[in-house]
Design goal:
One of its GO terms (biological process) is lipid biosynthetic process. GO terms for molecular function: oxidoreductase activity, acting on paired donors, with oxidation of a pair of donors resulting in the reduction of molecular oxygen to two molecules of water. InterPro entries: FA_desaturase_dom (IPR005804), Fatty_acid_desaturase (IPR012171). The protein is mainly alpha-helical and 359 residues long. It has one domain. 58% of the residues lie in helices and 5% in strands. The protein contains 17 helices and six strands. The strands form two sheets. A four-stranded antiparallel beta sheet has the order 3-4-5-6, with no helix packed on it. Strands 1-2 form a two-stranded parallel sheet. Helix 2 runs antiparallel to helix 11.
């Protein structure tokens, strides 16, 4: 692994080359959010008030699902303070944007901003990191999962993307609620409960069939879109002792129109260098990274990243490799031998693997 540097080390070298306006909030991003909000309201009212053929409901559900996901991407930007700076307004707008994904702004900032960003790819402190071989050996459930063939695991993993964000968000609530000061906990509870109250209220109003198209199916679609990005953010990268975004993060490329619709969410390395900067300026950050450290920077098309995720396991071996414990196949990670165009593995002996698990 190359010498590692903190995100601040890189940011300090890029910042002088950025325009001053790049470090200011960009409230104009809210116009995109307003458009998505109006689309969601129109879709929900259409399903709720009109009796249409299920095919039309399906089409509306797809539009709602893509809009839910896009609102989540904007909510992510809002809650980093890159759209508005006033705390109460930031949290209000963030709550609205994350409402379909049922994640409260205070929980998100605690889980994502203050923990994931500070401890990215630290296997003990990052709540979003994947397990090591040592952790696998201590979990009966994980040991059972990794007895399955890698193809079955890959299929199950990709199918589970339809629910992963929602379930992980609930897990993060359970994990972090006690870390909030007692006087703040009721507010965090309220932010967790209110979205579900509104969606259950919608169920009572329009009935199960329409609710499926108005909320449940769109939520599954939104989960899948959001998690397709999140799955590529770090899962091919190594665990690292230093929070180095050029080592622990991956930027994926998508068509330009997708970047417009998704608020440049694909620029993930850039986001970890400047989380307090609007993603509007991430293409310029990318230009400077590639100019200064082209050999360190990781990017690939989202389709290639997804294929690489399918073909590789999600258990870390010696921090910078990935291992399939069932077969004893060891794969490199990005920057440590993984070539997405030609994924190879090396075989280790079963007795060596058993010995390392027992340490």
């Amino acid at each position: 692994m190359k010498d590692l540097h903190s995100f601040g080390w890189y940011a300090a070298r890029i910042a002088p080359h950025m325009p001053k306006k790049a470090f200011k909030p960009v409230p104009g991003r809210l116009f995109g959010g307003l458009a998505y909000l109006l689309i969601c309201i129109a879709g929900l009212l259409t399903i709720g008030l009109f009796h249409l053929h299920p095919l039309f409901y399906l089409l509306i559900a797809i539009v709602l699902g893509t809009s839910f996901a896009a609102m989540g991407f904007l909510g992510h930007e809002i809650l980093h303070g890159t759209v508005v700076r006033k705390a109460w307004l930031r949290d209000l707008l963030g709550a609205i944007a994350f409402w379909p994904l049922t994640t409260g702004p205070k929980l998100w900032r605690k889980w994502h901003n203050l923990t994931h960003h500070v401890h990215t790819q630290d296997h003990e402190k990052d709540p979003d990191s994947w397990p090591t071989l040592e952790k696998l050996s201590k979990s009966k459930f994980l040991r059972w999962v990794y007895r399955l063939p890698i193809s079955v695991r890959a299929f199950s993993s990709f199918a589970s993307l339809t629910v992963t964000f929602t379930l992980h968000s609930a897990k993060m609530f359970v994990t972090y609620i006690k870390e909030f000061k007692p006087r703040k906990q009721p507010e965090v509870w309220l932010q967790f409960i209110l979205p579900w109250v509104s969606w259950i209220g919608l169920l009572i109003w329009i009935g199960p069939l329409k609710w499926f198209f108005a909320f449940l199916l769109p939520l599954l679609i939104a989960n899948f879109i959001v998690m397709l990005y999140i799955s590529t953010n770090h899962r091919l990268n190594p665990l690292v002792p230093v929070n180095d975004p050029l080592a622990n993060s991956l930027t994926v490329t998508v068509p330009k129109w997708v970047d417009v619709l998704h608020f440049n969410f694909s620029y993930h390395t850039e986001h970890h260098l400047f989380p307090g900067m609007s993603s509007k300026y991430y293409p310029l950050v990318k230009f400077h990274i590639k100019r200064m450290w082209p050999e360190r920077y990781h990017e690939m098309s989202i389709s290639r990243a997804v294929v690489a995720l399918w073909k590789t396991p999600r258990v870390y071996y010696h921090q910078n490799e990935l291992i399939d414990p069932r077969e004893g196949h060891v794969y490199g990670s990005l920057g440590n031998g993984l070539e997405p165009k030609d994924i190879q593995f090396r075989k280790i002996e079963a007795d060596k693997l058993i010995s390392e698990k027992s340490k």
